[in-house]
Every structure is written in structure tokens, then in C-alpha cells.
């Protein structure tokens, strides 16, 4: 066993360096290409509405901050409303123009309908029309919006 360890100690470090020497340029090139295409084709999120359920911690919180840096209008939804107020302030400092905070449990269907309706009432983005002509204030039932935005 000592002989195997001695051979491995002699062979593995130089072999690792050779592998790194050949892999490093390729990895660096791919990383540069990724950066270039992300910069070139970065989606403009300014004034777009992003609804983030579970925004009070973990991935949801970090998503809120990322979209805030991109100047999106945020709708933060979570059960812990008091936690959302701090995230709202941080998002505003990072660049979000409008941040709407709502307490809701996404497991309950009625609460999902409520926060989606509230989001639609605050931020309606409709870039296509099926020929329906009415004022937004005249819409009494938010169930018509999914049919209009097909």
C-alpha cells in the first residue's frame, strides 16, 4: 500500500497540473463567451412587473434583489409580511421603482387568486388585444384577463 501511495504522490500532482493547463484556456474562453452573450442579450426588465411568491427568504429574496437591480416593478408575496417590508426597502435601494407587498399563502387557491387579482389591478401590462374595447376600471371580473392575454 505504501508503494501505491508513493506512486500516486509522484504521478497525480504533475498530471493534475497538465490537465489544468489544457482545461483552463477552454474554460476561460467559454466563460468569456457566456459573459459576452449575457451582456449582449440582457433582457430589459425596466418597468416590467415581476411577481415573486415566497419572497421573504432564500431564493425568493435573492430574486427580488436581482430584479430590483434591473429596475423591475416587484410584487413580493409571502406569509411573513413583516419580513417583506425589510426586503421592500432593500429592493427600493437597489433600484426597484415600485414594490408591492402582499401577505398570502400560495398553498391556498383563494389567496393565490387574490394576490394575482391585486397585481393585475396595480400593474396591467397588455401588449396584445383580441379586439376587446373597454376601460380597465370597467372590468369587474378579473377572470376575463387570462382570455384576453392569450
The chain-level structural class is mainly alpha
Whole-angstrom Rg: 25 Å
Instruction: Give the biggest sheet.
Output: 3 strands, parallel
Q: How many structurally independent domains?
A: 2
Report the helical percentage. 55-70%
Amino-to-carboxy terminus distance: 68 Å
Q: Just give the CATH class of the largest domain.
A: Alpha Beta
CATH architecture of the largest domain: 3-Layer(aba) Sandwich
List the secondary-structure elements in sequence, H or E.
HEHEHEHH
Keywords:
single chain; 150 residues; mainly alpha; Rossmann fold; 2 domains; 3-stranded parallel β-sheet; 5 helices; elongated; transmembrane; NAD(P)-bd_dom_sf; transmembrane helix
Explained architecture:
The protein is built from 5 helices and 3 strands, in the order αβαβαβαα. It is mainly alpha-helical. The chain has 2 domains: 1-42; 49-148, Rossmann fold (3-Layer(aba) Sandwich), CATH 3.40.50. Strands 1-2-3 form a 3-stranded parallel beta sheet, covered by helices on one side. It starts with a helix and ends with a helix. The model is unreliable at 125-130 (pLDDT under 50). InterPro entries: NAD(P)-bd_dom_sf, SDR_fam. It is found in: Membrane.
Amino acid at each position: 500500500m505504501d508503494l501505491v501511495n508513493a506512486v500516486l504522490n509522484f504521478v497525480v500532482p504533475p498530471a493534475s497540473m497538465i490537465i489544468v493547463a489544457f482545461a483552463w484556456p477552454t474554460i476561460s474562453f467559454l466563460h468569456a463567451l457566456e459573459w459576452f452573450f449575457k451582456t449582449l442579450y440582457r433582457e430589459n426588465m425596466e418597468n416590467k412587473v415581476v411577481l415573486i411568491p415566497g419572497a421573504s427568504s432564500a431564493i425568493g429574496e435573492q430574486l427580488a434583489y436581482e430584479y430590483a437591480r434591473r429596475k423591475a416593478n416587484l410584487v413580493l408575496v409571502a406569509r411573513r409580511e413583516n419580513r417583506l417590508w425589510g426586503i421592500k426597502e432593500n429592493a427600493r435601494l437597489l433600484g426597484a421603482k415600485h414594490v408591492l407587498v402582499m401577505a398570502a399563502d400560495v398553498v391556498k387557491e383563494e389567496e393565490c387568486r387574490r394576490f394575482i387579482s391585486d397585481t393585475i389591478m396595480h400593474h396591467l401590462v397588455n401588449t396584445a388585444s383580441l379586439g376587446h374595447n373597454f376601460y380597465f376600471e370597467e372590468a369587474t371580473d378579473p377572470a376575463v384577463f387570462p382570455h384576453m392575454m392569450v
